Amino acid sequence: MSPNSRPSRQRSRQRQALSIFRRRATLRRSFGLLNDFKYEQTQPDIFYGHLAEDTVGLIRDIYAGVRGAGQGTGQDTGQGTNQNEPLRDAKILDVGGGPGYFGVAFDKAGADYYTCEPDVGEMAAAGIKLQTSVRGSGLDLPFLSDAFDITYSSNVAEHVPDPWRMADEMLRVTKPGGVMIYSYTVWLGPFGGHETGLWQHYVGGEFAARRYEKKMGKPPKNRWGESLFNVSAGEGLEFARKVDGAELVAAFPRYHPWWAWWMVQVPGLREFAVSNLVLVFQKS
For 100, how many CA atoms within 13 A lie in the half-sphere containing its CB? Predict the structure, then answer.
């Protein structure tokens, strides 16, 4: 393939991968998800319940798009997946799935869902018991290679000291032809500091943590340098350029409407405006 044709092919693949999800990525959805953030600490059932439903929709649409699902017909290119139920019986690994809300949502979609979470307390926090919850680290996944149709991680990369090692591990356990979806919070975006505030992390992660503790009388759940790290959008795109054995088929801001996806392509701007970057890979 010539160098001139490669960008054109990549754009075509991205259009295909996001063709179905694009219809879901509206301004109304963006405002709804943004409004839910206020409930994360006080009413997690609302926040995580809505986020889990949105996540299932996002993965359903992207998986169907990557596999070439035909719009309007409900059929793909011959692999047997119906557009309306592309997750049925698909084997999914959610790295850092947390307290179980996502498991309930994926179960309703008919998926064969597994989650890997290092913190037992986090797994039991909501009182939701999943038989397929496995305790383990995303940096060394306790699964065989080529085991899952879909591997997925949401807002975990910024909480591990080596996020690209975790990405490599997720690709390792993804089946050839399968999809890996890597979604993470960009440090310089408004939510990079998580609960420590919308601007404080711009001064510095340690400053934000100290200020939160002084104001709230307790340390933040996400402590900079220990359980929260500054991961950039540029790092993710650089990883995608160098990764072996997989192709980046889409990169977009998770919570933005479709007409704002272009921000990912602009260096500098994407670090402040993207907020949460989604990288979609298909394994060779």
Answer: 14
